[in-house]
Specification:
single chain, about 100 residues, 2 domains, 3 helices, Transposase
């Protein structure tokens, strides 16, 4: 018996492999969470790009729609935390190592 599932997601422009319901994993999750729209984040986007896109989305949200504004604001907040964490230098004291001195001894 042949598999009846489509090989690609049924959302226009999405080329990811389909899973149950004819949707890819990302679109299935969006559907389960009742999230509007079909745009998915591209894999490998830099934290800076994700933050800038979240800020632009917040600017475009209608302020009178409190629920949509709150979601957009939460997205900016999470993207900002991710951006800050990605920009942190590694801890020189990790594993008991001392940082290298920049002045000769």
């Amino acid at each position: 018996m042949a598999d009846c599932l489509p090989s690609e997601c049924t959302v226009d422009g999405c080329l990811r492999p389909a899973r149950r319901g004819g949707l890819c994993w990302g679109h299935t999750k969006r559907h389960q969470r009742n999230m509007p729209g079909t745009d998915l984040l591209e894999r490998g986007q830099s934290p800076k790009r994700v933050l800038l896109e979240a800020i632009w989305d917040l600017v475009e949200v209608d302020a009178s729609d409190k629920q949509a504004w709150r979601k957009a604001w939460d997205r900016v907040r999470k993207a900002a935390v991710r951006y800050v964490k990605a920009d942190k230098p590694s801890n020189p004291y990790r594993n008991g190592r001392q940082p290298r001195s920049s002045t000769p001894s």
